[in-house]
Amino acid sequence: MRDELYIDGEKVDMGESGVSLEYRSNILTDLSKIVSNFSYTIKLPKTKNNLRLIECAHIPSAVSSFPYLNHSGTLLRDGVQIVEGANVVLISVSDTIEIALSWGNIQGFEKIINGDKTLRDITELPLSGSWSYWRKLITPDLEHPVIDYGFNDSEEGVWYHPVIAVHELMEQIAKDNGTSFEYDRESVLFNIKIPLLTNNGSPEQSEECSITLTPVSISGIDKEILFEKKSVSNYFFSSYGVSSDSNSFTGGLINNFVNTKYTVSWDLTCTISGTIPEDLSLEMHIGDKELLSASPYSINGDKVSFSLDGTTEIVGQHGKIAGDIKFILNGLQTENVISEYSGDVTISPDSEVTAYEGDGYNNRYYHIANLPEIKQIDFLKAITSMLGLFAVPKSDGSGIRFVSFDTLIANESKAKNWTGKVVRAYYGDLPRKITYSLDGFAKNNWFRYKEDDTVKGNYDNKIVVESESLDDEREVITLPFAACDYSGNMVSIPLYSYNSEGQLEINDVEPRIIYSSGNDGTIASFKELEWGTLLGKYYSSYQDIVRNPKVITEYVRLSPVELNELDMTIPVYLGQYGSYFAIVKVKTKENNICEVELLKI
């Protein structure tokens, strides 16, 4: 058996020992803990060629970036390529150069596993769009299915909330992270949807529509601060101009929407002559209504400093006059003259969406900003767990195939016959080793929804493994979503309620997940997503296997070509036992012998 290794396209001088490899299946592995195939430590001789390849990194004074960069490796065995595009890591240099390989890496997926991005960090939703109009319709539609949210039909300011299909979310997560997904049961992913349960505005549009104004003067009568002239017109507001002493200024902003609120950041220092009034304040007004106010935090001679920082309530007024936003120095006396100004004001708009229609109402319901704040890896883990899908790297390393256990069973027709490849043990026609349990299982393996005080029913369920040697129970997964009760025939999400004065209030509830049903998909359902239903429909063959598992270890002779073509989603057949097996692990040894771990299916 002859191994040849190339690093970054250059041939490496090999030592006397070969390269030991381990292939891993992720069929029974938690999505957040999937592993790559890897080599055990490879010891290379310190030849001139090898030292040149590592840029003499063994010398402390050498300026070498080799140990800190990713390198590409290709491994040939007896002239057959068995590993391509491996990640090569330099571990250490002593009397030999020690390196290791890993491959079957999933490009981009490590970023999802190790990152902290949530669903709100998705860059776009190409099918749903960045926003949709939220307003009462005659009938619900596919994007706004029937759900009992707790408001009365006569309520004008609310409507059924938008929902986003998990398929669109998964596709965008893959795209944003430079990878790709393929799915078993893909059609189901279009019907499972996430309701948007908050009324947030868009941070991106708020930033885009922010404005910074520079104070330069003050009106003599109203004590309104005047700013350098700046003509602005955006979605939320437009600036208005004023004239004073033949000069043109920006006097403030004209607010466009009733349901807008503003965040202001302003550290203002000005020089004021005369006695500083005790009741002096810097105020933000809309029309004749005060929104924010700040008293001086420092008075040093004639230098007076204010810090006006905060977010207003919903302003409730819009348009010219009633919606004029201005800043006033309230309390100034006739003797007070302002001669200097220091500090710009930044004003950022935001809104809370409403279903009220008509002039002055912002009906844009922003989708990404209202997705639940669930980490992307937890979301993917939840959806794949619900459908009994396991992650398998694509053969070219470009992404992930989400495969069901049913696919493994269906692939028995493609099974590789390893009957004649088994290296028999000296003690007869029996496996070298057989065990009767799988790592991470208990007698009762629970699948749960997240707890929420508003949920009355129990929608959890479990898989039972018949082994007295196991712990009593474990939590396989608790989804980041709460379950949904029913109100009559309607899915119920108690997002709204009425207070003692009969006013509608929005409640904090845990994220939810629903299934689109009905002929046109406009009716939300949850029966399809109860864990009892999911386990019965998507875990049937899985349960048959793990209920009474048998895991055997054998030595099998596999040629380099067979290693190169190894597919963990295709079972193998051993005539000795008249059974099919799923590949769990393959570890290469000398002379094309491999130690394999197989799960009876």
TrEMBL record:
This is Uncharacterized protein. It comes from the Bacteria.
